[in-house]
Amino acid sequence: MTQQLQQKLSDSPAMRWTALIIVSVTMMFGYFFTDVMSPLEPLLTAAKGSEGGLGLGWTSSEYGWFSGAYGLMNVYLLLLFFGGIILDKFGIRFTGVLSTALMFGGALIKWWSVSQDFGDATIWVPFGGDVQAQVAYAGLGFAIYGVGCEIAGITVSKVIVKWFTGHELALAMGLQVALARIGTAVALGAALPIAKSLGGVSASVGLGAACLCIGMISFIVYNVMDKKEDASAANTASDSSEESFRFSDLTLLLTNKGFWYITLLCLMFYAGVFPFLKFATKLMVFKYGVDPELAGLIPAMLPFGTIFLTPFFGGIYDKKGMGATLMILGSILLTIVHVTFALPLSNVALAIGVMIVLGIAFGLVPSAMWPSVPKIIPMKLLGTAYAVIFYIQNIGLSMVPMWIGAVNDKNTDANGIIDYTESMTIFAAFGAAAILISFLLLIEDKKKGYGLQKANIKQ
After folding, report:
1. Are 323 and 368 in contact, with CB atoms under 8 Å apart?
2. Cβ contacts of 11 within 8 Å, gap of 6 or more
3. What confidence tens digit (pLDDT) does each residue in 337-359 have?
């Protein structure tokens, strides 16, 4: 018994991997709900009553505003930033339950809104003007959900760092991302068939809300393990408890150049991926002539690819290092993908091949970027650091879909056909910026010795 108390619970491989699986289930259901509406754009923007009575009559701009509403409260009310401070100040258990409850509550509002017929009623919304009441209420639910999901994301990141530092940190983060991508893949591939077979958009959204309820329960189960981990850490010969958070410590974070490079890389890279997925299904229909019933399966290839690639590249980072190099390669591939989509080519096989390349890029960058943050920022500030990164990322997740929706509206002809050249060029520009920032991060690593090119596993 004494020997057991001399080790932390996280020193047991079985226990730390169990903890990872539990919190990963929560995020997997979260990612399912985040993207459950993406393949439903053809139904959302179809004329009311069309598509067998399932069309909701949203415009492309309204859909763009709804997609961007995810990050509105995080960005403009600073809720994600405060969430990071709450995480560092009050701990993982409190913040995890709070965030998953917000996710579930926001999901219920969104499900209710798409289940109702509000007639011709309109509501003024920020950055969208007058939109249909259904769009406004759905956006409100998505915004509340977005607050919870992003805070849950930084909480889970801190959970993984807590349990896996000195062990398989990048692999663990990669596997968490992989499980989350399963949620995205299932949403992209199954949401439209579910909606069409079970009576409309509300069926897919309702399924997502039910999954989030299970995710909330999963995190409550994790809290039991977290409490035992803290108790075991307190009983080790060398107490590994972290220093307490102080507001004055924020200066150390905000003046760290390497931290800002990672933050901006996150902004540019994810701005070229997640907002793209919001429009990818319709892109496959209009530009590449894919059957609407199958169009969602092509974007779904991206998260399926990362299910295997992110842990694979994370394992390389753990054992061999080369974190900054992986980020550079992923950014280059992202740029190539969007340049290709911008070209006047309409071959379906090409679209599939390019989506596979995007999946590789999407495996490379996250597998190296997230495990690199603890090398730059101390544990006591880690929650706030991830919160700032996610906050800046949410600016892109909020504004880019609105921008692309407006661009697509502008480039829609009288027959309803969209020219995607301009929107894909915008996405390519995000990739080019990511390349530049990745090189700047590599240079900064050589100056400061963060160890981004070194292995994570301590021998």
Report:
1. yes
2. none
3. 999 999 988 888 888 899 889 98
Q: Crossing angle, helix 382-410 and helix 133-164, to 10 degrees?
A: 150
The total of other beta-carbon atoms located within 10 Å of residue 230's CB is 17
- pTM (two decimals): 0.79
pLDDT the model gives residue 235: 64
Closest CA to 181 of 96, 275, 302, 268: 302
Which runs of consecutive H residues, i.e. helices, occur in 199-256? 201-234, 250-254
- The pLDDT, as a whole number, for residue 203 is 94
The span from the CA of 255 to the CA of 236, in Å, is 34
Three-state secondary structure readout of 38-79: HHHHHHHCCCCCHHHHCCCCCCHHHHHHHHHHCCHHHHHCCH
Find the angle CA(297)-CA(298)-CA(302) to the nearest 5 degrees.
105
CA dihedral (400, 365, 16, 167) positive or negative: negative
The answer to whether the beta carbons of residues 283 and 427 sit under 8 Å apart is: no
Structure tokens at 163: 């349990």
pLDDT digits (tens, 9 = 90+) for 211-267: 999 999 999 999 999 998 888 776 654 444 455 667 667 788 888 999 999 999 999
State the distance between the two ends of the chain, measured CA to CA, in whole angstroms. 26
